[in-house]
Give the backbone structure.
Amino acid sequence: MEPLVNYLFVSAALFAIGVYGLVTKKNALRMLFAVEILINAANLNFVAFTRYLHPTTVTGQSLAMFSIALAAAEAAVGLAIILAVFRLRKDVDVSEIKGLRG
Amino acid sequence: MNEALPWLVWVLPIVGAILTPIFARIGDRVRDYLAVLFSLASAVSAALMIPSKEVIHSTFDWIPSIGLKAGVLADPLSIAMANVVAWISFLIMVYSLGYMKGEPNLTRYWFFMNFFIGNMQLIVLSDNLLQLFFGWEGVGLCSYALIGFWHSDEKKYWVGTPVEEGGRRAWGREQAYSPSHAGMKAFITTRVGDSAFLIGLLILYTYSHTFSFTQLAEHTDWASSLASAGLLIPVTILIFGGAVGKSAQFPLQEWLPDAMAGPTSVSALIHAATMVKAGVFLVARVGPIFYNAFQAVNAAPLFFEVVAWIGAFTAFLAATQAVVGREIKKVLAYSTVSQIGYMMLALGAAGLVSEGTAFAGGFTAAFFHLMSHAVFKASLFMAAGALIHACGSKYLSDMGGLRSVMPITFISMLLASASLAGIPPLSGFWSKDAVLAAVWEASTPYAPILFALAVVTAMLTVFYTFRMIGLAFFGEKSQYLKELEHKHDSHSEAEHHLGEAPKVMWIPYTILAVASLAIGVAGPFVETSLHESLEHYLHEFGFEAAHKGFEINPVALGGSIAALAIGLPIGYYIYIARRADPAKIVNSSSLLRALYIFLENRWYINTLYYAIFVDGLARFARIVWRGLELGVIDRWSDATALASIVSSKAGNWFDKYIVDGFINGLAYVSALFSRVCRRIQTGVTQNYLLVFAIGVVVVLIILVLNPSLLLR
Amino acid sequence: MINPLLQAVFLPIVLSPIVYLVGRRIGSRVGWFSFAILAYSTLLLIYSASLSPDYFELYSWQPFGVFGLRLDGLSLPFAITIYLLSTVLAVYSIPYMKHRIEEEVKDQQAANSKHGIYHLLYLVYAAGMLGTVLATNLIQFYIFFEIMLIPSYLLIAEFGYGDRAKISLMYFLWTHVGALLLLAGILTTAFLSSWYSGRALTFDMVTLLPSGELVKNIDTLSIPFGYIQAIAILITVGLFVKLASFGLHIWLPYAHAEAPTPISALLSPAMIGIGGYAYLRILLYLLPSAYEYIFFAISIWGLVTIIYGGLMALMQDDVKRLLAYSSVSQMGYIIFGVASAYYIGVSGSVLQYVSHGTGKAILFMTAGCIILQAHGLRSISKMGGLARRLPITATAALLGFLTIMGIPPTNGFQSEWMIFYGSFAGAIERGDLAKLIISGIALFATPLTAGYSLWTMKRIFFGRLPENLHEVREAPPTITVPLLFLAVVGLLIGIYPTLFTERLFPAVKILLGG
């Protein structure tokens, strides 16, 4: 088998890409994509650790399944919010939406 | 029946008084006659008491919890006095029918006259001092109301000569008074005397626990307790203070001359015959009791000295003022003050004797003079009233030559005046002689001085009496009278009937004048029987009777004759024979003029009293009012109000700025803090993500550096 | 007849709202209702007095103790005077308040409403006064004390003359502060008594023994003297504000002069004397050592008050202010009698309350009569010769003044001689020369009373009648009948004081400790 650390590198890379996307992008849709990538990175981590450390269980895998479902739900909600905001402001540039400024 | 008589004597007139307004509803004549009738009924009851041999003493419970009983005591002294009062009162009531005819408001007049008679009799017949005080103040009230009878104060009713009519000012003050003022003056002056009376009485009661005369006489332990507290003499003198006030003796004599503002019938009744004698009666009632008290504790009879001296001085003082009196009633008023001085002198002398048996001498003299004076002075006043009615003026200078116009009045007044002057054989001679004798026999080193004063007063009395008679009845008619007659002729019916008085008026005073003559003619007999009955009375107090027959004291007789010998010719010469003009005599010497003014201004005593007690008091009150009440207390009250407003404002300020301020301050601080913290909420999603990320990194670093944190 | 005293106190209070409603309908004539209620209550008082010399009713009243109403020899004169005056003045109020209210309120309905308010307050006021003198519990006493204060304040504020808002407030504040001082004294007494004697805290002044007798319930003998002094001063000052003694009197001339006259006639004669009653019941009875400490000082205070009141009366032009200062002087007599430390002197004070009650009420009523008949005339310098136009009023005024002056046969004399006798006897018993002299001076001050009385009589009723007063007519019977009734009562008591003294003397002896 391949060493676990390879998979960890991949998931770390994915995580980094996700964080980079989240922090640097102004477009809300792009931030959403980045969030999806982050979630996938986490899923990969879960599966990898379970396969290598506890091969007889399926803890990570089932958690990944949950996570995928939740990601889908969260994407739906997120898209709905972005849609609503777009309808209101005609713009999805996050740095322009400062209504909740305290 | 006998028991009821003394009660009837004083209750009947009071009942009559209360019923007067009811009778007035029926009719004026009914009211008038019934009023007189009640006084007659009282007089008859009094007369019916005379034959009783026993002393009548009837009591009933008044305030049981302090053992106070009300009662009447009819013994020789009070029976005699009651009759004098009752019959003279009745005659004056009859006289009033004529004198007050046509006056409005007679209901009030009759009410107070009867109420007065009832209260006077209450004084005479009371068996205890507290009840006597009821009558005492009652007569004071009636005196006030009757002096001020004409309370609308029209100038013609004023006593004294107003400045606009030529009156003299004393120390800048006018000496004329309105009736209501005179009434008030009388009441207040006597109230001063009464306060003294009350103090003495109450202190006496503290020791004796009884007000009753009989009990005070029987048990004299109170005297020793009082004496050991040093209070015996003060108490007796204080009680005498009441007599000084009521009988218008020095220093409380100034109300009586001004009481002449009242109707003449009132002057006759109250201020000549009865009320002013109440003081003498009081001294007569308590005199024997005090004498015994002094004897029992071996105290000096200072009380009697005081009485004698005040009496003598007052007699002299008033007589000098009568000499220059312009109004006929004022002359008679001063004369009354003077003669009462004689009575007090006699009572005082009575107590100054060396042996108890001689007490009765002065006592009888005083009482005899009281009776004698009541008779002739009432007569004089009533006759004066007739003169005033006839002439329409109160001034002697407005009269003159009335001998021919009013012959009956002339004879009557002449008789009464002769009695006053002490001309034998009239009653005044015997009574005054008795007084002089009593004074001479007093065993005090000052007896000769008292005697001399009495004799000089007698001289003055003769003089002013005949001055009065001369001015009124002799000589030519005055200018005023001539004008009056002229007016009378030109109108068919004038108000002032310049002729003899109506029968209903001259009968009473002529009766009294004749009585004075009759008593005088029987003088020695009257005096002796009075002496005996009073000795019998005094026996009850433990005095032994001397049983002396009638004696004439040569010194006293000499004094009386001397007074007549000096006074009568001078008076006759100037006023009756009109050989000399008194005005010229007075004006001829500045000393005489000054003396005249001094006497006319009543020795300035009146003015002095006004300066101190009226003006002085008013000034003091004003100073206290302005200075203390308005200046201090009112300001203090305003200050407390101001202080409460200021403190309330201060509290308000504290509440608003400090308490509220503190709360607001807290709020401000939190707002400040929140403002600072709020800056994290930029609303920009990227910022939140950045912070989130940084936070995660920080946590990771901590965990890497300190892995033990994971092992919990 | 059940619970007569309870009825007498509470019936007026309970019926007062009904009287208000009736008054709104019928206006001034509702005074007859007040009269009926008060007359009935007065009869109840007399009935209670006939039942027993010391008649009392006790009701449980947690947590303060017992709500008691006691009509003994001491409270009887006060109670009868208060209710008698209230009854008589209810009739007097009818024409007087009609004139007063219609002076200011033109609309008939509004005027009727005000009549209703007046009588409501009047009834509560009268009942409040009665409750004070019948109370056996200290807190109960204080409550009624305030109950009588508040309606009187409102009456002055609503119906008074002059600057009435300010004056009624002044009156309220002064007497309220006095009441608070009294309350402080009362509470201190009760608490310290309980602390030092070890008994339970109680505010009942008396308690009922099985034998049916009432005995003293608050034991103050063990309280240290320092506290006693403080209590004495507190209670004295507090009550002397009510009694308007010198220095604390300034509110009285304002309040009594500017109150509507029927209320002046209650304020002055009836209410301020209750201070004297309280002094006897509370200080004398419960705190004999305090009394011993202070009675000489208050005799001097009384003397000063007598003279000061008289002097100030001389300076007044407003007839009601003059009568008010006269009341100050008369209260001085009451204080003086209380200070005599002898049962007859103290009884004299009680009788002085009665005689001043009848006399001053008569005088205020005559002043009100002049105000009524001469259209608001109060200035003495503008009066004169009124005896011709107002004969009945003048006669009554003379009787009133004679009562004040203490001349027999009015009841003023009985009270006066008893006060002074008590003072002399007390001084002699104790060998106290200073007290004797003070008593002498006080008696010599009585001509001052005679002076201002007779002088006022003269200035108002005698002499020249001014032009503008020629048309003045005598007052209607609703005024003259009450006036004469009071005068007759005064004379009756003056001649026969046994009506009160038989029960009063024993009661006062008990008060003074035998």
